[in-house]
Amino acid sequence: MAKKFDKPKMVPVPSHSIIPERDIDKSPILECSHLGIDFGGLRAVDDFNLTIGRTEIAGLIGPNGAGKTTVFNLLTKVYQPTRGTILLDGMDTSGKTTVQINRMGIARTFQNIRLFSNLSVEDNVKIGLHNQEPYSMLSGILRLPNYWRQEKAAHQRALELLSIFDMQDLAGVKAGALPYGAQRRLEIVRALGTNPSLLLLDEPAAGMNPSETAELMENIVKIRDTFQIAILLIEHDMSLVMGICEGICVLNFGQVIAKGTAEEIQNNPEVIKAYLGTHKEA
Amino acid sequence: MKRLSKTSRANGLTYVMVVAAFVILQALSAGGGLSSTLQGQLVPICAYVVMALSLNLTVGILGELSLGHAGFMSVGAFAGTVAAVSLQAALPSAPVRLLVSMIVGAGCAAVAGFLIGIPVLRLNGDYLAIVTLAFGEIIKSIVNNLYIGMDGVGLHVSFLKNTMTLGEGGRMILNGPMGIPGIQKISTFTAGFLLILVALIIIFNLVNSRAGRAIMAIRDNRIAAESVGIGVTKYKMMAFVLSAALAGAAGTLFAQGQTAVIATKFDFNTSILILVFVVLGGLGRMWGSIIAAAALTILPEALRGFATYRMLVYAIVLILVMLATNNPMLKSFFARIIPKRKGASVDG
Amino acid sequence: MTFLNHLINGISLGSVYAIIALGYTMVYGIAKMLNFAHGDVIMVGAYVCFFASSSFGLPPILGVLLAMAVCTALGVVIERLAYKPLRQATSLAVLITAIGMSYFLQNAAQLLWTSNPKIFPTFFTVTDRETGAVKTGISLFEGQLNLSYASIVTIAACIVIMIALTLFTSKSKMGKAMRACSEDKAAAQLMGINVNTTISMTFAIGSCLAAIAGVLLCSSYPTLQPTTGSMPGIKAFTAAVFGGIGSIPGALLGGILLGVIEILAKAYLSTQLSDAIVFAVLIVVLLVKPAGLLGKLVREKV
């Protein structure tokens, strides 16, 4: 079920790269250059450059309203960028729709949880597997042999994916009835179902207590290691970001103000100013 | 697996309910235990049940409000009946003719559904609803001004004015606002029952398949559905066309059970009536649609005793039921006496 | 000249649609519901005015005022009894309840006043002082252009209502409360606005306008039956969507355009297909402008 891309090719690594050591010989999975979007007169995101390695865990942080989710919406083409290009595995994504972007390999979760809340946990994951187990509507209605075969495979795969978060026992529960933390985890499982090469997590630890967050951190690393994918996450919980992100990008007022490792970011005066404000502004 | 088993149990019970109702009514009918009014209502009840199932697919499963569903019923009724009348000589066997005409009716309604779906499904919410209403009215106007005749050469069609001169032995089938008179009643209760079964099988199997899940995903959260690679337009269209086809078959069944049909029978009020069945029966709940459609088709007849007050009583019953089932205070009151079912959105 | 005649008739009919559409649009804007019973309130208004003048011999103006009072009360009562308990329910549940209410009003009217059509009296007449002849309109350009008084009054009434309502919603305290509620009910409540009173007020205004629309409609199209309100109701609802539901100028624009298209289609294209043409135009407009002519498209925040 490995996703095949048409033309995996080497792309020169930009100078601002934060690609980790082990990916250095591979082309980056994502390259954004000079990405920007305007809403009316407002430059929500401007000149956004980011490169993510194939198996990197990267963090996108910044104060509220900095444009972090907008970046996700640009990457997944919920909004079409006004300027700039996004290369996914070396392929230009301009003009693509959200659906096509997912098929190309980007999956995401949402800040304000968007589950199929009237459906069961298992069905939510199976919907994530939609393009992995294709059979026609007619086979489904007539219950042809490939319906049974693929449904069985989808069922097993769904339970397998749920077991990452030890949620296989919840398969029959209505997704909307899950506790908050479990809903966030289910969104991750659903996204993984689409077999992405880049997973975008929008505040995965929001609303979780410290022990849940610690568990989530372990699981994010586990997901990266098992699936060998890149993960870009937006998070306000600094223990999570500093704990697992190999590269961090800081956004303020739609612009990148710093990039680097956890240590570099923590000591960056620009970042401190953005988060705490200067005396003048305060 | 808890829910799957619960769902299939509800689906199973729905089949059992339909079969049992059929057997009982057949037995009563054979034993002369049915009043002649009820006897005459059997085919329309089946047609309305299929209409309710079909609309529940659009409103309950797809999650889009349609206010023009009678339009598809109309297309099915007239296309199917024209087919049945013109095939009278070629297909002497009534059940075969009914089957063929139903397929024609469903096919034509599906085409209409597709054509309407192209603009309609681009819109959202109330705008989509108003456009379906508009299409329902347009279909009514078109059929109301359509003239179809048949002679030795074949079918002749004219629009707005009857301009055709038919050859020898020719006859008018559809006569504009006069509709189709003198229909041979070839729809039977058994045919209606079988159509209900087919509709149930299609809907239940769809819901528990990849396509059905995609449709419900779009209903629950369109943006999330897109984010996992589900083509929204494609699946909306699938559900809409399927729903239109079922409505078309129901229309054919209905028309072939009447002595005459006219276009104005399938107007906005009929669309609303079917919507009432669906909402009262519960969105996504097929057994609810069946019971509501059957009960509300019989109710006006059953209220004959009230004579002039019956439609008023009907309206009051409708309002009270809606208040009782949707008011939070009353709902919690009922929840306390009736143990709450924690079902998924699609059961039965 | 005949074109001008048709155009004026169209604007006159459109003005009636616009006044009815206001009721739909205001209620939709604030309560986010389609009040399907609105068309039947029009019918009730027309009946009240009819009986006030023909059975009790009240002068027309009193008849209209009585109709307005009755409809206002009716609108508020309907809202309190049928819609208010469903404030938290799904919009579909409210829609069905509104449909039930529409059935109720129609059937109650049928019981009270039978389904035999009543011929609505001609209010807007002028008696010629010299000849004593009763004129229902003025004739210009040697009879080539006929303006009925009913049309003139209808169009004038529509203009007055629009101006009054625009001033009301932008200047008055209650009007501002209404706009606040239509933006965000919860926030409005936190600012100390009584949402229930505001919604009641909206229904009151909408229903009061429906009474006026009923009288005006029946002055031009004098056949009065229990079902009189339903088709104009649907058309006016269409008009509201056409102009952009929730928008007061949109209701005016949508109503007038719909009326003009309907009359012109009847005159020049096909009488039988005029309704189909009206709805086809609506579909085209919604495809080009998915939120109606003056509506604002709200994008879902991701």
Defining traits:
heterotrimer; A: alpha/beta; Rossmann fold; 2 domains; 10 helices; globular; disordered N terminus; B: 348 residues; mainly alpha; 3-stranded antiparallel sheet; 3 strands; disordered C terminus; P-loop_NTPase (chain A); ATP binding (chain A); ATP-binding (chain A)
Account of the protein in words:
The complex is a heterotrimer of chains A (282), B (348) and C (302). With 282 residues, chain A is α/β, with parallel strands linked by helices. Chain A is built from ten helices and ten strands. Chain A has helices spanning 68-75, 98-104, 121-128, 137-142, 145-162, 180-193, 210-227, 238-244, 262-266, 269-276; strands at residues 30-39, 42-52, 57-61, 83-88, 91-92, 106-108, 198-202, 230-234, 247-252, 255-260. The model of chain B is unreliable at 340-348 (pLDDT under 50). Chain B has a three-stranded antiparallel β-sheet. By secondary structure, chain B is mainly alpha-helical. In chain B, strand 1 (146-150) and strand 2 form a beta hairpin. The longest helix of chain B is centred in the first third of the chain and has 29 residues, at 2-30. Chain C has a single domain (2-288), classed as ABC transporter involved in vitamin B12 uptake, BtuC. The longest helix of chain C has 30 residues, at 2-31. The chains are: A alpha/beta (282), B mainly alpha (348), C mainly alpha (302).
